[in-house]
Amino acid sequence: MMRLSAFQFPKTFLGFLPLYIAVEIVLGITIFNKCSGVYGILAIFTGHPLDFMQGVSYLWSILTLIVYVQGMYEILKPTLLTFSQILVFYSIDTVLTCFFTLWFTNVWFTEEAASDQSGAATASTKSKRGEDRASQGATEAYEYGMTMLITWVTLVFRLYFNFILASFVKELLSNPKFMIDQDDVAQDLKNKPLYKRWWIKCQKQSYKLCRRMLA
Amino acid sequence: MSGFIYRWFLADRPANSKVSELETSWDIRQSLAKLRNYQPTTKDVCHYGFLCSVLLFVFVAFPAPWLLKLFVYALFGLLFLIPITSQFFFNALPIFTWLALYFTSSYFSAGSRPPITVKVLPAIETILYGDNLSDILATSTNSFYDILAWIPYGLFHFGAPFVVAAILFVFGPPTILQGYAFAFGYMNLFGVITQNIFPAAPPWYKIMYGLNSAHYGMHGSPGGLARIDKLLHINIYTQGFSNSSVIFGAFPSLHSGCATMEALFFSYCFPRLRPLFIAYVCWLWWSTMYLTHHYFVDLMLGSVLSYTIFQYTRYTHLPVVDTDLFCRWSYGAIEKFNIAKNDPLSTEPSDVENVPLTTMNFATPTPPSELSDDDDVVASRSASPYIFDRTTSSATSNTSLDLQGEATPRAVKPRFD
Known about the structure:
The complex is a heterodimer. Chain A is mostly helical. Helices cover 74% and strands 0% of the residues of chain A. Chain A has ten helices and no strands. Residues 120-130 of chain A have low confidence and may be disordered. By secondary structure, chain B is an all-alpha fold. In chain B, helix 6 (93-105) runs parallel beside helix 10. Chain B is globular, with a radius of gyration of 29 Å. Chain B starts with a helix and ends in a 27-residue tail after the last helix. Chain A: It comes from Maudiozyma humilis (Sour dough yeast).
């Protein structure tokens, strides 16, 4: 597996802010966005049709929402286990977001092409409004350009945010203050419910992965 | 009455504490003297420069008699100069700038406005969030949901900023209201600027007109609020939204921005009630989509704008909250957040735990010498556990399982036992 330890990660946010403030902003913005999963899944109750890929993306959003929320409580006193898990989920999330973006872009443009064909009859009413009024609406090229611009900007930001998180975890790994005493976790586990044991196992695996890649 | 006020608000007041006191002077000379000695920082120049340029634009663009405009600006100038009014009015300058620009927005000529987009928002919504979330939530409607959606969207939204300001003033630390006015004003100001630069049609437009292009002559629609008008036998929302000045101002949602800002400030002051404030924001988000007034992406931009401005304000302006104190009069001093001191990654050179791993010389561990307070001895002693941590057998003291066989960070921890 490729080691990222030699990679030059950003040491500050936008060149001047400390990393913990960056992580707080990154997690906050991502958490807001991940709420989409909760509203999307409500389609089950409202009766709106929901296809398989939407369902997967909404459930994934809800899972990542829970993972990211943990980090918000630990910004000033971070632990390696939590932030390793956040980084691993965020990185998987970045890959999945790229995939979902491609998938749903295809869905949108297919839908739009279909609605354009059915809306062909309205073209005559459009021209009746006159040249001046017609020019007040955006052209197809402008609409398309803006859509692509916003999509690309969000993806680029997402990638940058991913690096910020990786940088933060790398700093945590190199700082002895945050070293993990694994026995503390192991002793605690015995009387915990299954999902908690599973959760901590997931955190430990994430931690090991991060160590291998970043330390 | 005064006894009640004293018992509730002033009983905990620290002796000689002046931080919670308000300015009571009417003397303009006091403000002028301050102005003469004022040394603006780069931040101040950017802040006032930006607000002044917006106000100058409004002064030129607002279609009213020049004399009247001059009179209003002079009146505000006077309010800024009188110390007793200045403490409130001057600190609310970003809010006034936003309101000025907002009310001017409706007078821009259609020819000078950017083109209206009708496809960008639903496209972005589908691309980023899988579907049109407003469509999902507005699929089935009933009177109960209508009322539930109307409460935060049509009622609370308009009163909440004032209620929040009043509560923050009384129960928050002194000067927090300044921070609130700054953050709230800037968030709305940036929001209105974006709405004007990037006019976009709300979800009701797609329901009514499909993806056909729009023009500025069109009337607005109350969306789902038309059902409230019908239910309550009123005509407020249908009339209000039909003649709205910002029909195509869907992006960003300032409903979402305001609710987020209020929730952030309240969570900052009253952290124990945070779930309640989060619930309010989620409720308002649902209602804006249910009423087909905003796409989810609008709500996101509003909230992200609020969150970013709040974080900036929090780290640069806001006083630190002491949750043990009851109200503004209980504070003896105002503390600001120290960014460097609170950095969890910051390394105090005096703390032996923070000796960077890379600088440790693991190859030549020196045996521990006698205990001494000498710094050199501490450094050599800190390397001593190296011998034990490197052994793979009976490593009862080494709990970092996965670190075995490597130079472990534990090696730098001092052992005094």
